[in-house]
Amino acid sequence: MKEFLDLEAQDGVRMTWNVFPGAKQDAVSCVIPVASIYTPLKPIPNVPVLPYSPLRCRMCRAILNPFSIVDYIAKIWICPFCFQRNHFPQNYSSISEDNLPAELFPQYSTIEYESNPETGPTVPPVFLFVVDTCMIEEEIGFLKSALAQAVELLPEKSLVGLITFGTYVQVHELGFALLPKSYVFKGTKEATKEQILEQMCFFTRKPRPAVGVIAGTRDGLSAESIARFLLPASECEFVIEELQKDPWPVPADQRASRCTGAALSVAASLLGVCVPGSGARIMAFVGGPSTEGPGAIVSKTLSEPIRSHKDLDKGSVPLYSKAVKFYEGLSKQLVHQGHVLDLFACALDQVGVAEMKVAVERTGGIVVLAESFGHSVFKDSLRRIFQSSEHDLGLSFNGVFEVNCSKDVKVQGIIGPCASLEKKGPLSSETVIGQGNTSAWKMCGLDRKTSLCLVFDIARKDGPDAIGQPTSNQFYFQFLTYYQHHEGQMRLRATTLSRRWVAGPGSVQELVAGFDQEAAAAAMARVVSFKMETEADFDPVRWLDRSLIRLCSKFGDYQKESPSSFSLSPRLSIFPQFMFNLRRSQFVQVFNNSPDETAYFRMMLDRENVNNAVVMIQPSLISYSFHSGPEPVLLDVTAIAADKILLLDSYFTIVVFHGMSIAQWRNAGYQSQPEHEAFAQLLQAPRDDADAIIKERFPVPRLVICDQHGSQARFLLAKLNPSVTYNSDNPPPHGGDVIFTDDVSFQVFMDHLQRLAVQQAYS
Amino acid sequence: MASAPPGPQRPRPPFIPNPNTNTNPNPNPSSLPDSFQNLQIGRPPPPSAVPRGVAPPLPFSSAAPRPAAFPAGPGPAPSVAAAPPMGPPGLIRAPLPSAAPPQSHVVRPFPGSPPAGAPSSQPFAAPPPTAPQTFSVLPPQSSGPFTGNPALAGPPNSQPYMAPPSSQPFFGTPSSQPFRGPPSSQPFSRLPSSQPFMGPQPPFSGPPASTAPFGAPAWQPQPRPGAFPGSVPPPVRMPGIPLNAQNQMMPPPPPAMGYSPHAGTQMSTPLKIDPNQIPRPMPTSSVVVFETRQGNQANAANVPPPATSDFVVKDTGNCSPRLMRCTMNHIPCTGDLLSTSSMPLALMVQPFALPHPSEEPIQLVDFGETGPIRCSRCKAYINPFMRFIDQGRRFVCNLCGFSNETSRDYMCNLGPDGRRRDADDRPELCRGTVEFVATKEFMVREPMPAVYFFLIDVSMNAIQTGATAAACTAISQAISDLPEGPQTMVGIATFDSTIHFYNLKRASQQPLMLIVPDVQDVYTPLQTDLIVPLTECRQNLEQLLESIPNMFESNKVAESAFGAAIKAGFLAMKSTGGKLMVFQSGVSMEVPFFCEAHKLLQPADKTFKTMAIEFAECQVCVDIFLTTQTFVDIASISVVPSTTGGQVYYYYPFSALSDPAKLYNDLRWNISRPQGFEAVMRVRCSQGLQVQEYSGNFCKRVPTDIDLPGIDSDKTIMVTFKHDDKFQEGSECAFQCALLYTTVYGQRRIRVINLSLPCTNMLSNLFRSADLDTQFTSFLKQAANSIPITPLSQVREQITNLCINILHSYRKFCASVSSSGQLILPEALKLLPLYTLALIKSIGLRNDGRLDDRSYWVSHVASLSILLAVPLVYPRMISLHDFTSKEDDDISLLSATLPLSSEHLNDDGIYLLENGEDGLIYVGNMVSPDTLQHLFGVSSLDGVPNQLVLQQFDNDLSQKVNEVVNEIRRQRCSYLRLRLCRKGDPSGMFFLSYMVEDKTPGGLSYVEFLVHVHRQIQTKIA
Q: Which residue of A has its CA nearest to B530?
């Protein structure tokens, strides 16, 4: 494992297979797709930032990298991707073996370029708040104070705009000093850029050009007309104070009329008019379901429930597909403009995250789901976005991600927060998954943690020439990320990788050696989520089981038809457990959650790195007791004991679980007695660890502190392997617990796996 | 004037030319109260000076200085007796506008003489000789008549005619010299043709009787010199053209001439017509008291005074003629008779017409939960003409003839005269007009609050021309005139190419501005809080109005979305209804431009009409103030106010200097005049007639009723009738107008206005009782209605034919004895040719002129009252330069009108011409710099803008002129737009276009027109 982590530390890349199956057929039989999970902006210490433009291959546009073969005499370099010979330009004339430019240093496989740092675009980032006002006063109060705080934290130069919505959409003109002033748009209609231009008087001082793209100062909009709506953060704190509840009355038997879709459409068009192509985020704060206009998810009648997974399965939700279609359109517009949609959904009800997912995800937006604007999950997450600290998000804008790879590798697509730019080339595979059919992707918003999962296709046909040529058994990859750094300048990060491939018999061991089970689990989770959303009648459990069986069948050590002889290499050993937990996770067992929650979980899964993804799939469990220091324990019901404290990190929720005795002691107040200081420390330890996790995680997880047998304990129990259930033969040890479920335990799962893996049929 | 009696109770705030903005405020504080009264009275024509200042109260106020006046009343009695010969004639006198003057002069002569009562008629009457009828004609002999009068004897005898010169002389000459001045009798002598009449009409003596009723003459006996406020030194004209002038001034109005069946004005051979002798309106100078019903019987002779004269009404069964009057005071028994007469049969209904301050207010009757008594068949309301029979157990409906049972609660025994014993105690049984409290059954919802929503154009043009600022200031000042109370709600919005609403309900916070940018599909940004009780937002509102001009100071939006804005305003007030006041300057985005001139007068498309009907359904009444400097397509825009009971105000070309004052006054009057909301009106009439058509500013959704989201004291609705059966001679035809409305204080009322007129088979009766002003107004409206759909030349022809047909009918059936070479005009309609000519030359029917002007004229006329219709077409012109030489007060100055002929304009004179809308001040090119200095504060008019702000300077002339202008404003309930017209300048030409008697390139002179009419009649007869 260690070597994979080291590689990740150096380049931000994890690959399911670090040794590639060398031919198409091999790759297929490997079951787990060849994929890499790449974190483009992963903070990597010591990455040099070169103050000049990169040198590109004149054939394939790849960037000079340590894998290039350099002829110092002839001043020529050979591109490892296309083997094109390129001359060094004049400014590289002094190059020699002893005088290398940084990009050729082998340890700088990841490097950044910052072109013309002085003249680079310094358009400050724009934050357009889109705020729901159909909420009870209390919630509005919470939201107000959170926003006020956020505005204070914004970099002074950044621009702020405000749109509120309820029955109607109100675009507040902040630069109008005399009165508070706002433009009111109907909630039932989308607003196009054209309409915004015309209706909001952008062309009153000049004749409007008859044709052509109209947007931004470059196309003739006066800066003042833009400044009406987007104001430096330092000048607009007052606005938040003015927020008021939507004044339209709501009958008792109806939902508030809330036009989320129209508001977002107006916001998108406004940004499209004012700041196309430069970094801007729409931050939507939504407190309930959209009931009006485009993107409505439910009718206003309260007696009609909001759609559930069951309804979606049955296809009995006419509004759903319409809304999704609307948000797809919106996402296209936003991607075109290079703007981000962030969603802060805080309500006990669903608000339509499932429908908005497409727009949030394709623009690389942030999503936070909480029960209330007063909840710390929301408040702290919002603060985290703007706060500069060691864990800050490093919000960047306007990214474009490109891939180069050796000719035998193609890209099927990316599962993650990005949008295909439809730049089809020899590199794009016929098989498409996620955002595919391209070799370039738009990442309107990205941050230090954004991780993309690229799924590759090994296109190399098995051929006689393929064997026995050790010099050519390397694949090369180059990931190029252009982005607007959070400080304003444009940067390019280039990561160049090489991986060996193997083929033919005897390659199995080598493949296994390069298998990264965590990365594989994360990739499988993304793939299965993607398939569940896109393939009708897809049976995820069956698909996962079959994949696992086939994998084990191919890579396990066993004698045919002898389950007991089955064993797995350590490289594969915990993978079945990942799959077991994935099967039981919120990603696959969606019926325990609302469509909104599922969408939220998946969006987080799709943007997180391998480590965090693994936590989502298989939460970590740490046990605290007097007997020993904190120790990780199996995610199993047997971990529960009366005298232990358990800390469960399931990524979205952190549970501190006090065993019965601990709870009694605590209730008796021992921790405050000097003679029981050890107890106090024991109580504190998991809290401290939880805080540490919370501090670095975004969105901020929900912290649940509970006692054994308490109602909140379900947050823990749901995640544990039900090795002891109410109908188990073996009673739990004293102080232990049972889980009331009919789910199979891991043990049963493994038994079946072994039995099936060794069957002929799967080999 | 200051002594104006307190008497009159006035329901609503009167119209006052704003003291504030008015640049030349009325200096005399005491005059204010007076003005109030006047206004309230809404009394029309100028003459009244007298009444106002002094006399008016007389009738009722004990305080009145000269009770004597009234006593005059008694006079009548005698006169009546005297009059006899011509039964009816006596009564007739009233109708002629000119009638009044004669009286006055006549009267004077008889100071002390009892007969005075019968003044006007007398003069002629007595002198049987002259042909009272032929007024123009009056031969010199006529003087004779006067001689008869002892009183007159003195001076008159010799110069009999002086008298006739009527009013002017009188006024001029203080009582002392009474009749002398006028010595002018000569003028008459000149009178050519008249002879024919002379001989024949002895009968006229009768007329005197009629006069009696009007106490008017009363005071004359008293020679109080000073008292006569009105007295204008006769000399006015004298200087230049002594005799002639006088003549002109006072055409020998045979006014009071009785109406002998054949009475008529004859013109002898047209070619010989003396322009000085042809009929012209004569201002009356005295107030008469008119009892709407005499005795229990319809009195055929009880003809109301001319609408444009000054009178006080005593409601004794029929309604006040101000509220409702008919084109003829006899109803023809058959449709054939009506068509033979060629006259129109129509009612002009002005349900909220301002009363004279001395009149009793309309009484309110509350029948409790049962609601007003109604005929169970036709639903007519109880009125004085319903006949109780069977000891009061049943009553017979005067409209449908159905015999109803009297409810027990309402039972009352009948007296010996067949009337209910309590008839005089119950207003609904003795008054022509009453109001009933409406019960729940008349309400589909709670009565609406008084809602006022202001929409202000803030597009670039509006801002730059100062129109926005003017509107804001006007609104801000007018707010205090809105009805008090929690029921009064206001809202405001501004618009350019988008619409800006304001949330005013933000305690202690600034208003919030909410912009609706989508004008294709408008909506209101809030459901509540856009319209807020005035008490809760007054401060916010005032601040907002103050800051609006600044807020949009640099607005560069050139378009204004008028249509969308009114739609949006409508949506804001949809739930309650109310008044939507739009201040529009720019070119409306929605109005497409057409080039076909004829089509332009029709709305460009149906959008506005559809919208307007929707507005009306929700009780939204739209008034539009057009403060513009460009073409705005009034034809299209005006559909909205005219369908919703509102009106168009037009300030073109808008001047930031002179128009704000008028804008403010118009707005103020608009909201403070008597008015009602969410009204429904229906006119019922006796079986035999049926309503043919309603015409005015309203929305009609069902055939029988008209919906009036707003109805006010200035609005008049014309109702035409046709026969569907016959009447018996001697029966009566009743009209009942019922108006269900909500007061500004939120009470639901039903105003019921009754008029019962005798039926006749005699054509001559019809002519004798014809009501000129009303008929003319009907023609005017008819013309306005056809302008948008008929070529102008055709409309002019139609109008001329109407006139010719009537005169022809008269000539043929009523005056057949006379020689065919004579043009004979019915006394009552003798001014018809003049008015017809003026109408043909009016802005609406002229070929030249701007389309918007014509469209505005059309829309203005649609709801115009009789009072204002006449001056609109035949304006009043007076000379100003000689004011100082006259000693009368402004009111009598006002009655010294000049004929509208350029012959009467002198190069060294200054003249004021006003039509109730505009005031044109014409300055000759020889006027002395002194006069200019006095009047305008400059010695030369070079560089003085045409849009005039009349200032008041510290000199006699200036003060008098200001007083007169203010007096006109009060009379017309309108703040005149003053324009300066200079001879030899386009503005002078414009002024001259009002000289309707002149020959113009496209039109005949008055004399020529008479000739033309005469020829046509002759042709027809032949």
A: A247
